Amino acid sequence: MKRSRFSEEQIIGILKEHEAGVSVADLxxxxxxxxxSIYKWKAKFGGMDVSEAKRxxxxxxxxxxxxxxLADAMLDNVALKDLFGKEMVTPAGKRKAVAxxxxxxxxxxxxxxxxxxxxxxxxxxxxxxxxxRMRAIAQERRRFGYRRLHVLLKRxxxxxNHKKLFRLYREEKLAVRRRGGRKRAIGTxxxxxxxxxxxxxxxxxxxxxxxxxxxxxxxxxxxxxxxxECLALVPDTSxxxxxxxxxxxxxxxxxxxxxxxxxxxxxxxxxxAILTWADQSRVAWxxxxxxxxxxxxxxxxxxxxxxxxxxxxxxxxxxAQARVALGCWRADYNNTRPHSQLxxxxxxxxxxxxxxxxxxxxxxxxxxxxxPVAPTARPGKSNSQGELRTG
Length: 391
Hints:
The chain has helices at 8-19, 24-31, 35-45, 50-82, 91-105, 115-119, 128-140, 146-155, 162-171, 241-255, 272-281, 297-309, 319-335, 347-353, and strands at residues 201-210, 216-224, 230-236, 260-263, 284-287. It is of the alpha/beta class. It folds into 3 domains: 8-119, no CATH class; 128-171; 201-362, Ribonuclease H-like superfamily/Ribonuclease H (Nucleotidyltransferase, domain 5, 2-Layer Sandwich). A 5-stranded mixed beta sheet has the order 3-2-1-4-5, with helices on both faces. The radius of gyration is 48 Å and the shape is elongated.
């Protein structure tokens, strides 16, 4: 509606003239208004003074402003609900949201969004030649990543930033597939044999130490899990799979062939030499799970005793001295040192009294459920194996 060209003070003055006795026709002729306007002003401002008219006008303006604010708030609420679920994190997402509000609700493009964000459009080049050359090099050098591709492209004269090259590299899906870890031998899939008699199960592991001159050496430890005898302590600066196989052949000649050998997944135990030895000797080789030394508890406990009682107490000046000291400690361990898990007998004494009990061998032919470490003693009869524990 067109605003009136008369202010409230002027309208009140015209009405005062009418109250003083001036006719409506004279007022219309004098002020250039119609009689309808005079009667309308009289209905609205009749009996008011100038201050009251100003107060009424201010209230009307305030009411209009509040209605406009309420309408804007309701429109914003509806618009925000309509945008629910749309991504507005990236500049492209914000531009899509603004375009939707502009088309659906007629809202301004500049509300709630930077003008640079709304009006900026990327001007990336096509880079078709660069993409084609990059794909060709990646196909020729399949294990090269984007950094090496960047170097090769720079040699050919392409002036390109490494960040842009990485973006193109991802868009072309040229990422090098990461290879898994090395293949490991899995050995026998049968569960570990319960050690009920000598040579039922041997455990192997390595222990490391150093000489006084700083040279490192390793010790191959072999233990019979039933009698707890230390079968071998072989120190050397290098112990390969072939050396381990030769030591096992020597032990087989001295003690006989074991039913099963247990070890971790070290490179020496998973080498072709060990796999060939196990296949030719027809000995089941069981590998424990990676990072699970508790599955080979007998040899781990023995290694702890070896380090605590000998390695931490002795300074070795040469490998010859280490071989002599280890041989003496092995003889003492097998023949003199009482073992807490064998009823305080020595391993040699326990090996003499230990009789094979093949009728009580609780081996699992199928499945992977762990079998008991020792059989249950029958009532009225002593069972020397009942004293075995895994702790």
